[in-house]
From TrEMBL:
Residues 4-334 form the NADH:flavin oxidoreductase/NADH oxidase N-terminal domain. GO terms for molecular function: FMN binding; oxidoreductase activity. The lineage of its organism: Bacteria, Bacillati, Bacillota, Bacilli, Bacillales. Coiled coil: none annotated. Pfam families: Oxidored_FMN (PF00724). This is Alkene reductase. It comes from the Bacteria.
C-alpha cells in the first residue's frame, strides 16, 4: 500500500490517511458578513468523504482588520461560528478531521477591505504591489502600538476559542508568506526598537505570544504553525542564514510545546542550504510532526514519508481539481489537471 494512504493516529486525531488538504484561499464567504454557506459545507465534506486525512481550511480572519481580499470568512461573530459548525459536523460525519487556519494579512491590504481602517504592521513600511483582486496599491500601514499588539493577540485567542466552539479539531496559525506574523518575524518589515523588534529571536516574540494564546485555548497538540521563507510581496527574499533561522524558529516552537509544524515552500525539492531542502533542514532540528508541502507529486510525497523527512503530505491544487484525490490514488486513476479558469470559479 502507498504510505501516503495509510491511516495514522496523530495526538488526539485519528486521520484517515496521511494526505492533508492544504489551506487555499477560495473567497466564497459572504463579503459583508464573513459567513460561509452550504457550498462551503459541501466543498469540505466531499474531501473528507473521499479520504483526506487532515483538512486545513482556507485562511479565516480573526478580526475585520485582518482581511486581505474579497469573500474571506471570519471567526469573530456568533453567526460565523454557527455557519462553521455546519462545516465541521459534515466533515466529522464522514470521518474527517478539520482545523481552522487563522490568517491576518497585516500590511497586505487596503482600507476598502478593512472597514475604512489602515493596514496594521510592525513598522510603517508600505508594501509594493497590488491588493489581491482589488487591484489597488497596498495601503500605507499604521505601526502597531503595544495596545494594538495586545488586541490582535486577544483576537487570535478569541478566534481559537470560537474555532473550538464551532467544532474544529484544532487551529493552524498562518505565520508564513509575508502576512502579519511574518512581517514581525522579518527584519525587512520589522524595524521596531521595543521587545517586538531586534534580533531574530526577539522578532519572533509576537508569533510566540500569539501561539501561547492559541495553545491556551485549544492545547499544544491541536495547534499547528505555518511558517516560510517565501513572501507573497517579496519574491526575491531569502533568509541570510537558513540554518540559524530554522534553529531559532524551532527553539520557539519547542518552548511553546507545539507538536505539529507546517514549513511552507513553493517547491518541496528546492535546496535551501548545504544540499538540504527546507523540510530536510527542519527535520534536522525537529523530531515531532512535520507537514510537507510545495507542489508535491505522489512519488515525491511517498518517498519523503518513507524516509521520515515528513509525517504528512499536503496537496493544494490537485485536491482542488480532484475532490476524490485519495480514491484516485487508491485506484491508480489519472488525476484531473488543475485549471484556474475552471476550478477557481466555483466550489467543486
Amino acid at each position: 500500500m502507498i504510505e501516503l494512504l495509510n491511516p495514522v493516529q496523530l495526538n488526539n486525531w485519528n486521520l484517515q490517511s496521511k494526505v492533508v488538504m492544504a489551506p487555499m484561499t477560495r473567497s466564497f464567504a459572504d463579503n459583508e458578513t464573513g459567513i460561509v454557506g452550504k457550498d462551503v459545507v459541501e466543498y469540505y465534506r466531499r474531501r473528507a468523504a473521499n479520504g483526506v486525512g487532515l483538512i486545513i481550511t482556507e485562511g479565516i480572519n480573526p478580526s475585520p482588520r485582518g482581511k486581505g481580499t474579497f469573500g474571506i470568512p471570519g471567526l469573530f461573530t456568533e453567526k460565523q461560528i454557527n455557519a462553521w459548525k455546519k462545516v465541521t459536523e459534515a466533515v466529522h460525519l464522514e470521518g474527517g478531521t478539520i482545523v481552522a487556519q487563522l490568517w491576518h494579512v497585516g500590511r497586505l491590504t487596503h482600507h476598502e477591505l478593512t472597514g475604512g481602517y489602515a493596514p496594521q504592521a510592525p513598522s510603517k513600511i508600505k508594501a509594493d504591489g497590488l491588493v489581491h483582486r482589488l487591484r489597488k496599491p497596498y495601503g500605507t500601514p499604521e505601526q502597531m502600538s503595544f495596545h494594538d499588539i495586545q488586541s490582535v493577540i486577544n483576537q487570535y485567542a478569541l478566534a481559537a476559542r470560537n474555532a473550538k466552539t464551532a467544532g474544529f479539531d484544532g487551529v493552524e496559525v498562518h505565520g508564513a508568506h509575508g502576512y502579519l506574523i511574518d512581517q514581525f518575524n522579518s527584519n525587512v518589515t520589522n524595524k521596531r526598537e521595543d521587545k517586538y523588534g531586534g534580533n531574530l529571536y526577539q522578532r519572533l516574540t509576537f508569533m510566540k505570544e500569539i501561539l501561547h494564546a492559541v495553545v491556551n485555548e485549544v492545547g499544544p497538540q491541536n495547534t499547528i504553525i505555518r511558517f516560510s521563507e517565501i513572501k507573497d510581496d517579496l519574491p526575491t527574499f531569502n533568509w541570510d542564514n537558513p540554518e540559524t533561522t530554522i534553529k531559532t524558529f524551532v527553539q520557539v516552537f519547542k518552548e511553546i510545546g507545539l507538536k505539529i509544524i507546517h514549513p511552507s515552500t513553493n517547491d518541496f525539492k528546492d535546496v535551501i542550504t548545504n544540499e538540504m531542502t527546507l523540510h530536510q533542514l527542519v527535520r534536522k532540528y525537529w523530531d515531532d510532526t512535520i507537514i510537507g508541502v510545495g507542489n508535491l507529486d505522489i512519488d515525491t510525497a511517498n518517498n519523503a514519508l518513507q524516509e521520515g523527512t515528513i509525517d504528512l503530505a499536503a496537496f493544494g491544487r490537485p485536491i482542488l481539481a480532484n475532490p476524490d484525490f485519495v480514491q484516485r490514488i487508491k485506484k491508480n486513476k489519472e488525476l484531473t489537471s488543475y485549471n484556474s479558469k475552471v476550478h477557481l470559479r466555483e466550489l467543486y
